[in-house]
Amino acid sequence: MPIPEHEFDYIAWIRQQAARHSRVPVGIGDDAAVVAFPPPGNCLVTVDMLMEGVDFLIPPATPLEVGRKSLAVNLSDIAAMAGRPVACVTSVALPRRGGLELGRGLFEGLYRLADEFDVALAGGDTNTWDGPLVISITLLGEPTGTGPVLRSGARAGDWIMATGSFGGSLAGRHLDFTPRVREAQALHQAAALHAMIDVSDGLAADLGHVLEESHMGAILDEQALPISAAAMSADDERSPLEHALGDGEDFELLFTVSPEDGSRILAHPPCATPLAHIGEVVRGSGCHLRTRDGKLESLSGLGWKHGFE
Amino acid sequence: MPIPEHEFDYIAWIRQQAARHSRVPVGIGDDAAVVAFPPPGNCLVTVDMLMEGVDFLIPPATPLEVGRKSLAVNLSDIAAMAGRPVACVTSVALPRRGGLELGRGLFEGLYRLADEFDVALAGGDTNTWDGPLVISITLLGEPTGTGPVLRSGARAGDWIMATGSFGGSLAGRHLDFTPRVREAQALHQAAALHAMIDVSDGLAADLGHVLEESHMGAILDEQALPISAAAMSADDERSPLEHALGDGEDFELLFTVSPEDGSRILAHPPCATPLAHIGEVVRGSGCHLRTRDGKLESLSGLGWKHGFE
């Protein structure tokens, strides 16, 4: 098929690229797509919008990386429910000038990652305008195992655990991270996950979300926090610890389990990605840090706050 | 709850406003929502993005109207599948300055229409930036009756029928139209709908989509076309007929049925919205207009073409 010159051609091109998928009996090209959810028929749904100048800049990011990331952040949300991703729809506002080339790159980045996680591209809405690039993806998934893992299930005495390491993601990792979809499913099979979230706002802030929904408090161990190489080598006024606790976009899993389950999965990890036991859930509210010298410090206030003027 | 000042508060406010819905066991406030699709578990999914300066201007449109329209265009897509809308997720880029007030208006417009059509607000992603307002809604629905009505089912000899009237929508109707959800379901029960689409790109263009997917051609009757009052009174160089055929955003239903079914639903309309028999599906390709003096004119080229530079 020739390189598309118009929006309709572009959609036809995408339609041709997007392979058929067994879960999508009606895909791109009708008023709506049909996605099959076999019994019990629970559909997980999440949406994330990325905006040029806020979430990325092109350059240094490439259209391919932006397309990839726009799906990856949604995969991370489905992972946080221990779900299996199934199909996505995209809506995009492309800058009129150069929008076609940009659209092709976006789609290729998105499509490669979709293919890797067996996600169908079920449909979308492609627009052009004189503004910056905006891309929004809605991802549908389905629960696995005993059902979705919510934020609200943390219990007093639970271990707080995490995959990977934290901080400094904006130095590069935020553009090529691998969403923890497989890890989440493996953990969900290996242990009774009480609560789970993916770390997008920052470790402290996202732990705060879990604690708030669970009506619990927590103590994190400074000594146990896995700090990323990027946070260790960040050359600014903030310490590696502050980066690890406050930076956003780690897209690691943060979850709570019973101490028995926690010890077991540390001894026999169900996934290759490193797991760490970073703290405990306690009765009460708020989150504290047990520093290396044994003091307790409040963590309130750390983490990214979005704001209106 | 006090007027929200920050994004997190705004989301909490929406979460409080959004009533619980029997089809959404997990709603706003987790990494993903859960929407129930009872057997056979087919989920219809559609997405539409509206952009300030392209799809609307505030003023003259109000935030309430924009919020309403952003859901209404999606309801129209689910209607075009003869589906029942179930739940939606929204993603929005709010201008930083004045974004909070705008966000409240958007949400209220959206919520009122969602309530009218029993649609759950299952989740969303709220962002702020220095750009114009962008709102994207993904709507989930489910098929009714014998299943979704596609664009691809038109047969030679079918009557082409439509609800309502056409043209001049941008004079105002595009901001307060009622999506034909109930009409579509009533028609789907009363007749075997072979193909259906909602008219968003324009009558001629959208009929073109049906014909292309169905590998058919069509003849429209000029005399039978229901032309809206707004198109009749449009004060420009284009005729009312040109408006009716070429204008976008009518959000009426265009469908094909057997002549027997067509006569029957004209004689005993299953809905109060006027129905019209406007033409026939024929073998071949392309669309022609039978003018008042009996001539056949090609309709190719009419309808809105989106374009890249």
Can you walk me through this structure?
2 copies of one chain form a homodimer. By secondary structure, chain A is of the alpha+beta class. Chain A has 2 domains: 7-143, 60s Ribosomal Protein L30, Chain: A (2-Layer Sandwich), CATH 3.30.1330; 159-298, Phosphoribosyl-aminoimidazole Synthetase, Chain A, domain 2. Chain A has 8 helices and 12 strands. Chain A has helices at 7-17, 63-80, 99-116, 181-190, 203-214, 229-232, 240-246, 259-267, and strands at 33-36, 42-51, 83-95, 120-129, 134-143, 159-163, 195-198, 217-221, 253-257, 275-282, 286-290, 296-298. In chain A, helix 2 runs parallel beside helix 3 and helix 2 (63-80) packs parallel to helix 4 (181-190). Chain A is globular and about 65 Å long. The termini of chain A are far apart. Residues 303-309 of chain A have low confidence and may be disordered. Chains A and B meet through helix 1, strand 1, strand 2, helix 2 and strand 3 of A and helix 1, strand 1, strand 2, helix 2 and strand 3 of B. Strand 2 of chain A pairs antiparallel with strand 1 (33-36) of chain B.
Q: Which quaternary structure do these chains form?
A: homodimer
Largest two-chain interface? A-B, 78 and 77 residues
Strand numbers in spatial order across the main sheet of chain A: 7-9-6-10-8-11-12
Instruction: Give the N-to-C terminal Cα separation of chain A.
Output: 48 Å
Average residue pLDDT of chain A: 92
